[in-house]
């Protein structure tokens, strides 16, 4: 199910067929460093991640993380979407891309589409984003999208603090 199409990208809901891509993405050294280890080691783990993460979010909230593909080639580049965390008062935007797709504006383009969806379809007026303090590339993406740093927060008691950014839609 396609959610959004931009000039260069397509965003759609994740399915079990995307498990090989999710397995690869979630085990990229950059994903592990900046987002964290989700414990996904097999195709079956990836299917469970899709089922209990994005698909559960689609059912509960109407939104979640989407697969981002490059229109010209059909290549899966990353994921981007809205996430509702119990530990944040606002819905937040999240994204992760394979390193081969960095530096091409795909994170900004896909996140802008997701923010439009947040405003136009879900009526959100404020969206959050979080990133590790040392993820300069992600911070630049957020700043290009109009996010402003608010403060550091702990998403869980067992994880280090992250930077919280906010954008008014």
Strand order of the largest sheet: 1-2-3-4-5
**What is the residue-mean pLDDT, rounded to a whole number?**
96
Number of helices, where a helix is a run of at least 4 consecutive DSSP H or I residues: 5
Poorly predicted tracts of residues: none
- The N- to C-terminal Cα distance equals 25 Å
| Biggest sheet features | 5 strands, antiparallel
E-strand count:
8
Q: What is the overall shape?
A: globular
CATH level 1 class label of one domain: Alpha Beta
> Which percent bin holds the helix content?
25-40%
Strand coverage percent = 25-35%
The CATH topology name of one domain reads Aminopeptidase
Query: Rg to the nearest angstrom?
Result: 15 Å
Going by CATH, the architecture of one domain would be 3-Layer(aba) Sandwich
Secondary structure class reads: alpha+beta
Instruction: Output the CATH homologous superfamily of one domain.
Output: Gcn5-related N-acetyltransferase (GNAT)
Question: Can you write the helix and strand succession as a string?
Answer: EEHHHEEEHEHEE
């Amino acid at each position: 199910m396609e959610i959004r199409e931009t000039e260069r990208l397509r965003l759609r809901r994740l399915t079990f067929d995307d498990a090989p891509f999710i397995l690869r993405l979630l085990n990229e050294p950059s994903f592990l460093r900046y987002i964290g280890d989700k414990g996904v080691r097999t195709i079956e783990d990836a299917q469970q991640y899709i089922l209990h993460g994005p698909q559960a979010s689609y059912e509960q909230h109407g939104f979640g993380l989407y697969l981002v593909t490059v229109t010209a080639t059909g290549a899966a580049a990353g994921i981007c979407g809205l996430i509702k965390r119990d530990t944040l008062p606002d819905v937040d935007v999240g994204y992760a891309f394979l390193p081969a797709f960095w530096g091409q504006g795909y994170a900004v383009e896909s996140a802008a589409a997701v923010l439009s969806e947040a405003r136009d379809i879900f009526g959100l007026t404020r969206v959050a984003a979080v990133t590790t303090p040392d993820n300069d590339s992600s911070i630049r993406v957020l700043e290009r999208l109009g996010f402003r740093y608010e403060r550091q927060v702990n998403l869980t008691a067992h994880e280090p603090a992250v930077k919280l950014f906010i954008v008014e839609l």
